[in-house]
Structure formats: C-alpha cells, structure tokens
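Board notes, transcribed. Complex of a protein with beta-D-galactopyranose.
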Amino acid sequence: MRKVFMVLLIAVVVLTGVFAQGAQETSGVKTYKVGVGIYQFDDNFMTLYRNEILAYFKTLETANVKYNVTIVDGKNDMAEQSNQVDNFITQGMDVIILNLVQTSSADAIIDKIVAAGIPLVLINREPLAYAKDGSTLDESYEGILKNPKVCYVGADARQSGSFQGRIIAELPDHGDVNKDGVVSYIMIEGDPENIDAQYRTEFSIKYLKDQGIKVNCLDDQVGNWAQAKGQEICANALAKYGKDIEVVFCNNDAMALGAAAAIQAAGRTVGKDIYLVGVDALDECVEMVKNGTMTGTVLNDHIGQSHTAVDVAVELLLGNPIKNYYWVDYVMVTK
Ligand code: GAL
C-alpha cells in the first residue's frame, strides 16, 4: 500500500514538472512563454520571417496578455538546435515555433517536445516521411503530422517552381534567346535536403516541358540558399558556357542576387541575352524585376506564413483545436 502511495506521489511530482507550462499570471496579466528556433539567422528570407513573428506577437499583446518570446539561432547546426530545444523544454515554454535545421531529424525533435507536453508549430521546412536510406517516401506533402498539438505552416514549393517555369514560358521567345529551339539553362539549388529546393528544381523545368518547350541543363549546382555561393556558381558557369546559357534558375532570391552580379560582371544583360528568375520576392529583387535586371521572382509570403504560425500558436496556447497543416500561397512576380 505504502509502495503504491509512493509510486503515485512520484508520478504526481513528475507530471506536475512535465505539465508546468501554462501562462504565468501576475496581478491579472497573463504572460505566455514562447520559444522560437530558426534554422539560421544568416538567411535573407528567414530574417524577414523571424522579424515578422516578433512584430506580430507584439501587435497581439493587450493590457492583460503578454508574450515573452525567446528567439534562438540554430546556426545551421542540428546538434545546436537540439540543445536549444532541450533548453526550451527546461524553461517550460508554453509553445514552441520551430524552423528545423534538418527535416530528417524531425521525428526525434517532435517526440521530445510532445513528451514534454509542449505544443509545436513547425515552419518553413516541412518534415516528410523518410525511408531508412534517407530518400523521401511521402510525395503527398501532408504526410506525417498527426498529433493534435503539432502542426506545420508552410507553402507548397511545387507551386513556386511552376511559377518560375511559367515566367520563362510566357516570355515572347519562351526563354529561347538564341532561337535554336532549346532552352539551355543552369540551375542553382538551395540546401538539397530541403523539399523547397527539390521541388523548385523539379517543377520549374517540368512546367517548361509540359508546355512542349525543349530544355537542356548545362549545369546544376548547390548554392545552399546563399548569395555568395550563387554568385560563384553563376560566374563559373558563365565562364564555362558563355552565351550558351539562356536562363539562370535560382531556387531563391538570395542566390539570384549573387547570380545577377555575376551576369553583370560577365557583360551579359538580363532581358536581352539572358533571363534570371528567383523565389522569395525580397524587396531588392522586386526592384530589380521592375527595372529589368531580373526577369521575375515568386512571392514567398513571409507575412502570411508568420502570421498564420503565430495565430496557430495562440490557438494552441488557448487550448483550442488546430489542423495539422496550414498552407500559404505563392504569388508570381513579373514586371
Ligand atoms: C525557402 C526560402 C529560402 C530559404 C529557405 C530556408 O522557403 O525560399 O530563401 O530561406 O526557405 O529553409
């Protein structure tokens, strides 16, 4: 009997610790603790995204409700991010918003957050079902999230890739600058583990092919979403293939900014003898689309995505039911 009592006592103590979350209330003011983990602060698009998360939480505060938001930089290091998640758990966060460094580690990270009883909003990098050899199993997107307190907020990268292809297909020469009947292009990819990179690469070209346009890939390199890498890859390809390159596809705008510099340095002119497309619609790139130094881009709606993520986090804080997946549309941007 005494043993049973001790076991029950221990269970109560442990569970009280585990479920210590819940807004702190002091003189009628509720303060929720929110942990936000970003894969890497040094990323143009995720910088806009994370600043908007912070700004939007502020706008939702009232005299009686406050959000104490802690935001941390995963430095593109999964071990570092895993430690940060452990700290969030120890700190008793009421909700966590997480931009995974590696989606292949999603299961382990989700499991420990769920075990701690903390609701979780995943953003930007969707966890897909992976086979043991690391290849993606689930092509359907809405794959693995089933827990009622875990969701993903993002955009369908197939749509952004198709828009990139469409921007080129709808040009008067359909991207065939030298009129040889084939669109010769180079592809500059983001982090290859990222479904955004995989699908943008695939669907931009698929769109052209579906329109009956012939394509020829001269070069396909990984630029890891980074401007400097985009510039280096594009400069090397221009040196090697010269005028043969008719279109430069970049999986994102940061790399397109780098590519634009390389194109200019090589004495080529976007819109005249080469085309350049990106994704994100960074302010600089929208300006470049307007003045013709970029052919087009695709709006990756960081406002819509960050607001949705925060709104869902608030629903979770209130204990309201949520969906497992929330999608925000991309928008094609041309002159
Ligand atoms: C993409 C975005 C990239 C980069 C990446 C990070 O959606 O287009 O610029 O931020 O997310 O995962």
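The CA atoms of residues 170 and 208 lie 10 Å apart. The chain has ten helices and 13 strands.
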